[in-house]
């Protein structure tokens, strides 16, 4: 996903050829340094890929929890409308409110 935003890829670094001059750098030293850079790039791309995957999973979980929250609110409204007896209505409302409260804690990450 992010790889197209960078000028160099690990492969570009690996395949880079330098011109040799009479006073040039030691080729072995340059190669070792470039190997280190390649390793860092590969690790960086792996981390980005893992973070993107984790982000997608978390977004899916958020959508699922929001849907569950909407369903519970709808169930609460249905339960309110269908209850005739005040005492049983109070008990079921308390249960539903507790369930709704727990779900909201999960969705919004509040620990109480």
Q: How widely separated are the two ends? A: 38 Å
What is the arithmetic mean of pLDDT?
Answer: 80
- List low-confidence stretches: none
Number of helices: 3
Helix content: over 70%
Percent range for β-strand residues: under 5%
Give the biggest sheet: none
Structural class based on helices, strands and sheet pairing: mainly alpha
- Radius of gyration, taken over Cα atoms and rounded to an integer in Å: 29 Å
Shape: rod-shaped
DSSP summary, beta strand count: 0
Could you spell the SSE succession in H and E letters?
A: HHH
How many domain modules?
1
Topology:
Blueprint (H helix, E strand, L loop, with lengths): L9 H6 L11 H56 L3 H23 L4
Protein described:
- The chain is built from 3 helices and no strands.
- With 112 residues, it is mostly helical.
- It has one domain.
- It is rod-shaped and about 95 Å long.
- The chain starts with 9 loop residues before the first helix and ends with a helix.
- The model has no long low-confidence stretch (mean pLDDT 80).
